[in-house]
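#structure-requests
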Amino acid sequence: MLSCRSSLLMLSAALAACAPPAPAASAPAPAPVVVPAIVVNAPFAKTWDAFVSLMVEQQVTPKTLLRESGLIETGFSEQYYRIAEADGLAACPAGHRSLPEYSKLGIDVIAHVHPVAGDSTKTNIDLKPRFVEWRTTGYVECQTRGSYERSLGAMIKARAEQ
């Protein structure tokens, strides 16, 4: 005759065999990439004008332009990138992309342009892009890899320092 404890152990084992498998452990999210402020060797007014003229040239729609506070916020833009290029810009969770060779990324940017404290000949630019990738099931948030900020910052810097 089985004891009550043995019966419970056998019942637990039988129920465990019928239970669905535990979900697979998901890969940890990549650590956020922090790109330091870009230091531009030009006064605030020249740097601001360079940033805004670049936006106009690139046909980027500004959502917010507050010169007094140095805030620039772009409207959301969508673009198709080859997979390798998209993966170089943003780390997106694994999943089924809507197209086999391309990734549809959405990007918006918040920037803060401000003079370097105590030096009116230099300006700092802090760029914070947000990436989302469209999938067959909706969109997912992605983590920046820092290349977008460095590239955009270099273009603004080159234009302002001319």
